[in-house]
Specification:
Blueprint (H helix, E strand, L loop, with lengths): L24 H6 L1 H12 L2 E6 L2 E6 L2 H10 L4 E2 L1 H12 L8 H11 L5 H6 L1 H12 L7 E3 H18 L4 H17 L3 H5 L7 H26 L6 H11 L6 H32 L1 H15 L13 H13 L6 E5 L3 E3 L2 E3 L4 E4 L1 H4 L19 H6 L18 H18 E5 L20 E6 L1
Parallel strand pairs: 2-8
Antiparallel strand pairs: 1-2, 3-5, 4-10, 5-8, 6-7, 9-10
Bound molecules: protoporphyrin IX containing FE.
Length: 448
C-alpha cells in the first residue's frame, strides 16, 4: 500500500470488479472482514467499485480518512444507506440527524457528557457490576456477551433516567436485540425502504414494544425531573435555548442513547474477555496491576490514573476488535481524495478494522500487545490510524463514558474472576453497524 498522492484525475482508482446487478454486495456480506481487508491489500489506499446503489470508494489511508471526517467534514453526510439501517428505530436522534437538526441535538446533549458529569457515574458503574457479580457462581459457565449487554444496558439506562429501571430493562434489551438482528438481513440493504420485507415487519414490532416502555419512562421523568438524569437535562437545555422539545424528539434521543450507549461497550468488554483468555500473560499482568493498586477494594474514579495497564488493555482490544468496524459517508459536493475526483452520489467506506490492523502503523498487527501503547508509539502514530470512536465533529459523544465504564467493569470483574473460554469456541463476527459475535462467547468463571 502506498500513500503517494497521484495528480488529480477523472479516472477511477482500481478495485474489485464485482458481479452484474449486485456489485460487491454479496462478497461483502459473505465475508465482510475478508473483503474489506483484501480490497485494501490489493488496491492500496483508495479502492473503487460500482454497487447497485452507486459508486463506492474504500479509503485505507489515515490522511484520506482525516480529510473526510475532520478537515472537510462539512462536505460529508452519513447518507441514505446509514439512515435506512438505523433510522427505523432511532428516528431523528443525534446519531442519524444531519445539518442544523444535528447541531441542535448535539448542543442539547453535550452537557450530559461533560467530564464532570461523567465522573459522577463512576460509583454507579462499579455498583452495578458488583451487583451483577453477586449472581456468578464459581465454576459455572456464563454467556459473557449476554452478561455484558445486560450490564451495560442497565448502566446507560440509569444514567439516562436517573433511577433504576431494571424491571423494564429486559423489554428494552429484547426489542433492541430483535431490531439489530432484523437489520442484518440482506433485503434491508438492497430493497427500497417502502418494501415491507419480513425483517422490516419485525423491526416495526420491536419499535412498538420499545416505544411503549420509553414513552412511559419519559412521561414519568417529565412529571418529576431530577438534577442528574439525561432526560431532565435535555428538557432544561431546550428551555434555555428557547426551543421546544417534543416527546417524539425525546424518544428519538433516548432510544439512540440506549442503543449507542450499551451495544458498543458490551462488545468491547466481551471481546476483551475473549482476548484475555487467549493471552494469559496479558491477563497475569492486568491482575498484578489490579492487586497492586486496589488491594482487593472496589475501583474508583481516583484509581484510574494508576490503572494504566488496564487502560492499555482496553485500547488494544478496541484496536483489534473495534466495536464499530466501519463507517460510511456521502459527499454533498465534489471533493478530491488522493488525486481522484469524488462526486455526490458516491458512498465512502472507512473501516477501523482495516486501518487498525495495517502493518504500516502497527508492528505484528494481529498480536494482542497492550504494551505497544507507549507515549512514544502514540506520538508517532498518524492521527487517524486509531479511531474506534471516529473523529471530527461527529466523533462519539459517549467516548469518555465508554472508556470510564470499560475500565471500571474490567477491573471489577478481573480482580475477582478468571474467565476461561470454553474449548472449541470460535469467534465469528458479523459486520453490520457493529462487530457482533454471531454466536455466544461461553466462558467458565473461576473465583481468584
Ligand atoms: C466502546 C464504546 C463505543 C464505541 C466504540 C463507540 C463508537 C462510536 C462511533 C464510531 C461513532 C461515530 C459513528 C459514525 O460517525 O457513523 C459513535 C457515535 C455516537 N456514539 Fe458512540 N461508541 C461507544 C460508546 C458510546 C456510549 C457509551 C454512548 C452514550 C452513552 C455513545 C453515544 C454515541 C452517540 C450519541 C453518537 C452519535 C454522535 C453524533 O453523531 O454527534 N457511544 N460512537
Amino acid at each position: 500500500m502506498s500513500s503517494e498522492t497521484p495528480p488529480t484525475t477523472d479516472e477511477h482508482p482500481s478495485g474489485p470488479d464485482g458481479l452484474p446487478l449486485v456489485g460487491n454486495q454479496l462478497a461483502f456480506l459473505r465475508d465482510p472482514y475478508g473483503f474489506m481487508t483484501s480490497t485494501a491489500h490489493e488496491y492500496g489506499d483508495i479502492a473503487y467499485w460500482e454497487d447497485p446503489g452507486g459508486p463506492v470508494y474504500q479509503l485505507n489511508h489515515p490522511d484520506y480518512i482525516e480529510q473526510v471526517l475532520v478537515q472537510n467534514n462539512q462536505n460529508y453526510v452519513k447518507g441514505d444507506r446509514f439512515q435506512n439501517v438505523l433510522g427505523p428505530i432511532t428516528g431523528e436522534g443525534i446519531l442519524n440527524s444531519e445539518g442544523a437538526v444535528w447541531r441542535r441535538n448535539r448542543h442539547r446533549i453535550q452537557p450530559a457528557f461533560h467530564p464532570d458529569r461523567i465522573q459522577a457515574y463512576a460509583s454507579m458503574m462499579t455498583d452495578a457490576t458488583e451487583h451483577a457479580l453477586e449472581e456468578w457462581i464459581d465454576g459455572e459457565t456464563r454467556l459473557v456477551h449476554e452478561d455484558m449487554m445486560e450490564l451495560t444496558l442497565k448502566i446507560v439506562a440509569r444514567a439516562l433516567f436517573g433511577t433504576d429501571i431494571d424491571e423494564d430493562v429486559d423489554t428494552i434489551g429484547s426489542a433492541l436485540e430483535r431490531f439489530m438482528e432484523a437489520s442484518e438481513s440482506l433485503p434491508q440493504y438492497v430493497l427500497p425502504p417502502s418494501v415491507p420485507t419480513p425483517a422490516r415487519l419485525r423491526i416495526r414490532r420491536a419499535r412498538a414494544d420499545l416505544d411503549e416502555v420509553v414513552y412511559r419512562l419519559i412521561e414519568k421523568r417529565r412529571a418529576d425531573p431530577t438534577d442528574h438524569d439525561v432526560i431532565s437535562m435535555l428538557l432544561e437545555a431546550a428551555d434555555e435555548d428557547g426551543t421546544d422539545v417534543s416527546t417524539e424528539q425525546l424518544r428519538d434521543e433516548v432510544v439512540t442513547l440506549l442503543l449507542a450507549g450499551h451495544e458498543t461497550t458490551a462488545l468491547s468488554l466481551s471481546l476483551t474477555a475473549y482476548l484475555l483468555s487467549k493471552n494469559p500473560a496479558v491477563e497475569t499482568r492486568l491482575v498484578a496491576e489490579l492487586e497492586d493498586v486496589l488491594d482487593g477494594r472496589s475501583p474508583t474514579m481516583d484509581d484510574l490514573g494508576d490503572l494504566s495497564y488496564t487502560e492499555r488493555v482496553v485500547k488494544e482490544s478496541m484496536r483489534l476488535y473495534p466495536p464499530v468496524p466501519g463507517i460510511v459517508r456521502e459527499p454533498v459536493k465534489p471533493d478530491v481524495i488522493g488525486g481522484y475526483r469524488i462526486e455526490p452520489g458516491a458512498t465512502i467506506r472507512i473501516h477501523q478494522w482495516v486501518v487498525h490492523r495495517d502493518p504500516r502503523w502497527y508492528d505484528d498487527p494481529l498480536a494482542f500487545r497492550p504494551e505497544r501503547w507507549t507515549d512514544e508509539m502514540e506520538a508517532n502514530l498518524p492521527k487517524l490510524a486509531y479511531f474506534p470512536f471516529a473523529a471530527g465533529p461527529r466523533r462519539c459523544i459517549g467516548d469518555r463514558f465508554a472508556m470510564l465504564e470499560a475500565r471500571l467493569i474490567l477491573a471489577t470483574i478481573y480482580q475477582r474472576y478468571h474467565l476461561e473460554l470454553v474449548p472449541g469456541t470460535d469467534l465469528d463476527l458479523m459486520a453490520t453497524v457493529t462487530a457482533r459475535p454471531r454466536d455466544e462467547i461461553p466462558m467458565t468463571v473461576h473465583e481468584r
